[in-house]
Specification:
By secondary structure, the protein is an alpha+beta fold. It has 5 helices and 5 strands, in the order ααβαββαββα. It has a 3-stranded mixed beta sheet with strand order 2-4-5.
Length: 162
């Protein structure tokens, strides 16, 4: 788990927030391990999702806070550009959080020291498969998005795909 090594080696303070973040990581990992066991046993291989209204801005902020020590240890600068105060999406919060954390860990591994990793949350117009507004009433639907963008100027090609 990210953060344990930093805590063990004295690079991070054992603050209440840091310990709470590590506890949340352990709970998410426990759920993922349980799901992997279910997948191994289930013939249908259906993944259980726990869909709920999730604040994407808060979730992205939590993922950045969780991985910030790892990114700084890698010599990266972390920048967040939050969208609206509450950016609600229907999603599985644990899986979405894990995906964002995985992207941030990839940035720590593949970007060069001195690079900047920017995490942005925003709403963007959604274009349906037919290229139109995607909504029968004529009003374009909007979708929420979280974007992780390492600085392109110095980041290797493999890092730019995000």
């Amino acid at each position: 788990m990210s953060g344990l090594e930093e805590l063990r080696d004295g690079y991070a303070d054992p603050s209440v927030e840091h310990l709470a973040s590590l506890h949340d990581q352990a709970l998410r990992l426990g759920r993922i391990v349980g799901d992997l066991g279910e997948l191994g046993e289930a013939e249908s291989a259906r993944l259980s999702l726990h869909l709920a209204e999730v604040d994407l801005t808060a979730l992205a902020g939590a993922a950045v806070a969780e991985r910030e020590a790892e990114l700084r240890t890698a010599g990266l600068t972390v920048r967040t550009v939050p969208g609206p105060a509450a950016l609600l999406v229907r999603a599985d919060a644990d899986r979405l959080h894990q995906a964002l954390c995985n992207l941030l860990s990839n940035a720590a591994r593949h970007c060069r020291p001195g690079d900047t990793v920017t995490v942005t949350t925003s709403t963007t117009p959604f274009r349906g498969a037919r290229g139109g507004g995607g909504h029968r009433s004529g009003h374009p639907r909007r979708r929420a998005a979280a974007r992780l963008r390492p600085s392109v100027a110095r980041c290797p090609r493999s890092c730019r795909r995000w």
